[in-house]
């Protein structure tokens, strides 16, 4: 059973020197706590997605993406509803996208004022701007810009009209 942090994010655990692990948090907009993976460095980081192995399939339904899937201690998707609650409970959220290649090389891109809208608005993706890692050898590139302002879609709920995604 996860430890409950009396916090709206992972920062409390960081400041109390808790180890990295699964904790219950309650963002300001949430009516009840939910579990997240907290990495206890750089002030406490909340993982919304982790994929290290190819076993967890991501071709999922709308309900699965809304509610989340996988194992928070391993490969997982936190869930659109939880991401909405997290990103809209704070005034300044930064998303860090990091891809590691063979655990030797890490490529990163940062998205500032990151938000996901609510389900009624189809969990649209929004951010103000993005920047690459300052180390020129670790630049990932801005792969989210094409989706800026776009509604979320799954194979069973096409909200963007992209016919190539169904092929």
Stretches where pLDDT falls below 50 for ≥5 residues? none
Strand order of the largest sheet: 1-2-3-4
Number of helices: 3
N/C terminus separation: 41 Å
Let me know the number of strands.
12
Q: State the major sheet.
A: 4 strands, mixed
Helix amount: 10-25%
Order of helices and strands: EHEEEEHEEHEEEEE
Q: Over the alpha carbons, how many angstroms does the gyration radius reach?
A: 16 Å
Q: What shape does the CA trace take?
A: globular
Averaged pLDDT, please? Answer: 89
State the assembly state of the protein chains.
Answer: single chain
Indicate the proportion of strand residues. 25-35%
Class from secondary-structure proportions: alpha+beta
Notes on the structure:
With 167 residues, the protein is α+β, with helices and mostly antiparallel strands. Helix content is 11%, strand content 28%. Strands 1-2-3-4 form a four-stranded mixed beta sheet. β6 and β7 form a beta hairpin. It is globular, with a radius of gyration of 16 Å. 22% of the residues are buried. The mean pLDDT is 89.
SSE layout and pairing:
Layout: E1 3-4, H1 11-15, E2 21-25, E3 34-39, E4 45-47, E5 49-50, H2 62-67, E6 69-70, E7 76-77, H3 80-87, E8 94-101, E9 105-112, E10 115-116, E11 125-126, E12 129-132
Parallel strand pairs: 1-2
Antiparallel strand pairs: 2-3, 3-4, 5-7, 6-7, 8-9, 9-12, 10-11
